[in-house]
Design goal:
The chain is mainly α. Helices cover 67% and strands 4% of the residues. The chain has 4 helices and 2 strands, in the order H-H-H-E-E-H. It has a two-stranded antiparallel ribbon. The radius of gyration is 24 Å and the shape is elongated. It starts with 27 loop residues before the first helix and ends with a helix. This is DUF485 domain-containing protein. Pfam families: DUF485. Keywords: Membrane, Transmembrane, Transmembrane helix.
């Protein structure tokens, strides 16, 4: 136990002052102005255009797997090669689709979301 008083920064340090290694102080009005901008609306729209359909598609895919596993045992137990059946392949497809969705989102974010978000942040903090 170090006996540090509550609220003290780790190692006794104080929070950085604005302009000295930390972000500039941004007022709530400035945040609202950025939030109301067309550029922010486009950023939000671009995120939603990717995230919502992809989430819905994956949930349908996952639910289909669960339902097939529960109610279509004959279909899922169809042998493919040796002891490998269709159910195992579809289950492995769940993992593969998770990795593919993650890759696609990172690619989308790097190309479409991050540049706009970085520009908005720089403008808001006065770095631009």
């Amino acid at each position: 136990m170090t006996g540090d008083p509550k609220g003290q920064q780790p190692h006794g340090g104080a929070p950085p002052a604005a302009g000295v290694g930390g972000p500039a102080q941004v007022t709530p009005e400035e945040f609202r102005a950025v939030q109301g901008s067309a550029e922010f609306a486009g950023l939000r729209s671009s995120f939603r255009a990717f995230a919502f359909p992809m989430t819905a598609a994956f949930l349908v895919w996952y639910l289909a797997y669960v339902l097939l596993s529960t109610y279509a045992e004959g279909f899922m137990s169809t042998p493919v090669v040796g002891n490998l059946n269709l159910g195992l392949l579809v289950g492995l497809g769940q993992f593969l689709s998770t990795f593919l969705i993650t890759w696609a989102y990172v690619r989308h974010a790097n190309r479409s979301l991050d540049p706009v978000a970085s520009r908005l942040r720089a403008e808001l903090e006065g770095d631009a």
